[in-house]
Design goal:
28% helix, 21% strand, alpha/beta
Amino acid sequence: MQEFFPPLGGIKRGSLDNSRIHKYKRLTIFEKKIMAKITLKGNPVNTSGNLPSSGSNAPEFTLVKSDLSSLSLSELKGKKVLLNIFPSIGTSVCSTSVRKFNQMAAGMNNTVVLAISKDLPFAHRDFCSTEGITNVTPLSGFRDTAFGKAYGVDTLDGPFQGLYARSVVVINEAGKVIYTQLVPDTTHEPDYEAAFNALK
């Protein structure tokens, strides 16, 4: 069972021993450190953590392709990988990002662009078929809870609670993170140019 410590401001002197107070302080600092903040149409929203730092090993994941087979990051080692992470392919900004990354990925060597959301694989398949998306591989996190936690992109509150926060992660051939962007407001598009410059 998780221990609960009330706010220290409401605790009388001597009501908690030093070890419990120190533990409370450590937990508070840790929680503040890992939780990132974005907005949705200007309204504050919390995410489950921070994106992996540049230079760190990209966390492993296994997500679901449009044909219901699985794809793991480890299968792409030796390639440059761009993760386009977003709430839902059914929103205009998300679908626009997939189209733009598809256009920009054309002709790029040894590069894989992944479009990642919690949409069902059937929605990914239908969108890509209708839009002629051939340079992006859509992946669904509908079976998975580890990806959002590992990359810190689970939305914790607001209308998009439970979906992924809009973000971009670029990974080099050695599996190292070389670029990240947590888009400040979910209604905004990612910085396409910066992401592709990181792939060069």
